[in-house]
Automatic annotation (TrEMBL), chain A:
It comes from the Bacteria. The lineage of its organism: Bacteria, Pseudomonadati, Pseudomonadota, Gammaproteobacteria, Oceanospirillales. InterPro entries: DsrEFH-like, Sulphur_relay_DsrE/F-like, Sulphur_relay_TusC/DsrF. SUPFAM superfamilies: DsrEFH-like. This is Uncharacterized protein. It holds the Pfam family DsrE. It comes from Halovibrio variabilis. Belongs to the DsrF/TusC family.
Automatic annotation (TrEMBL), chain B:
It comes from Halovibrio variabilis. Pfam families: DsrE. GO terms for biological process: tRNA wobble position uridine thiolation. Keywords: Cytoplasm, Transferase. This is Sulfurtransferase TusD.
Amino acid sequence: MATPDALLVVIRHAPHSSNWLREGLDAALVAAAFGQPVHLLFMGQGIMALLKEQGSGAPGQKATLPIIDMLEMYDIDALWVSEEALQGLRIRQDLLVDGITPVPAQEIPMLFQQHAKILNF
Amino acid sequence: MHHGLHYGLLVMGAPYSSPAPHSALRFAHAIIARGHKIAGVFFYHDGVHNGASLMAPPQDELNLHEAWRELNQQHAIPLDICIAAALRRGLMSESEAQRHGQPAFNVAPPFELTGLGQLLDLQQRADRFITFA
């Protein structure tokens, strides 16, 4: 459940196609390091950030999965995933990292409503 | 007399490749004209390119870097750039250029290189926080 001060970071971009994911996760980690409760919501292609079998991308591109694995250490344990995105991209939940919570489309607006602070990446 | 709101702006689009900076500037001028205040502008992701002082578009085009500087001069609005996102993309201040042994720099006041903590602080202080991406 959202605390009044919690930050909702929304991830909408897949790994490697741009720097959106990395820089979005950076913002989440910095907020958590400052003691702010952080919740993550993965929508659209952003859910691919959670694929547990993903590699490190083209040569020279750093993998983002290690950052996902690190989230728990920063007390970021709310990993919400749009159910619609899972179905749309035909990705089964067991292909994603542990600890995610699928959220039905009709509940997503509620998540936005519960957070006064939102960052979109 | 009503009390204006404090707005924080987050700009994540690059000049001349995204409409985000232009929209953010127009928005800034519009809300100031309505009696509100801008607590600060934070540049992140590709938005850091707005701080490039070597920007030289053709003379009949708006120079977005200049437009941000004018906004700062007229209304004393802080212009903060994420340092990690900037360095990654080849934007650095004089002191960073010295630190990295680079022969030139392209970020100068009123733009300031700062950390993401400043973004969170701006979001915390603002009554309304608007993203332009």
